[in-house]
From TrEMBL:
SUPFAM superfamilies: MM3350-like (SSF159941)
Leader sequence segment: none
Biased composition (Acidic residues): 276-295
Protein name listed in UniProt: Plasmid pRiA4b Orf3-like domain-containing protein
Family annotation (InterPro entries): MM3350-like_sf, Plasmid_pRiA4b_Orf3-like
Compositionally skewed regions (Basic and acidic residues) per UniProt: 255-275
Pfam families: PRiA4_ORF3 (PF07929)
Chain positions covered by the region annotation Disordered: 255-295
Sequence ranges assigned to domain Plasmid pRiA4b Orf3-like in this UniProt record: 16-178
Amino acid sequence: MYTPPRETTDYIQLRFQLARFRVFRIVQLPLTFTFANFHTLIQYMFGWSNSHLHHAEVFPNVVLYDYDSEALIGTIKSCGRRRPLEDYEQGDASAIDHWRRFEPEDKPIYRVQPKVTRVKDPYDSVITMEEKAVTLESVWTHNEANNVSDGGCSNAQIGIVYTYDFGDEWTVHVTCDDGDMFHRLETPSNLPIFKLARGAPPIEHAQWDVVEDDAEDKKVPPRFFDVSYFQGYCEGKVTSESRKTTLEILTREEAEERRREYIQRQKEKQERIANGEEDEEDEEDEYDEDEEDEI
């Protein structure tokens, strides 16, 4: 069940970039947004089914690809840090040498996931936190000395890497623009403000032979920018799904009507086949076929 964040006038503008694709969203969010809210929002914006594991990792020292490459705009090139030296390692030259040579330099500050398990990997030095307990205001702050890096990085050098489905590994890079990130509303709110969107991901769980538009060319419907549909999604009254040509956002009633129409078309097709009026190998009328016009 979706738990709305606390209302506030303090907002932050973030870019959500689908890694490996020219698909992105630019959204203003309340700083009170928890990572649980964050997860729900991403599932809605990219039309995923919320049927796989996920986590988010908060990184310092973020370097983005050069803006001269349109295909890589908003994509993180490098990020992370080494784990800090333990007290017992401080005066041990061999331990320090090993740390410098072999410790990975791309560790996050912490990892956020739905539940923190009691059993922890003894070789994983990354702190794990529960997503309902962490908010965006603990990551980016007006006073950069208080941000998640304790002032070690500017706000623009901090990013979040959200990973969904550890098999297919859909990855979203979340960053902010330096100098134009914080916004103050006149009236407190706890809802996102959708500013810009392009494309939609490839179809989730698609068969290898499914033909679909390039991700960047898929349409984003006007109702995506209407926050009432996100509210409906959070209440279980609206669906969001990436289809062959579009990000499809439907009410439950519209989705059910679409299903009934498909069943009726299939029934009529079987009758025509039985009467010899149509060949069984004629092109299938797929349930996931997109309509040309928005419902």
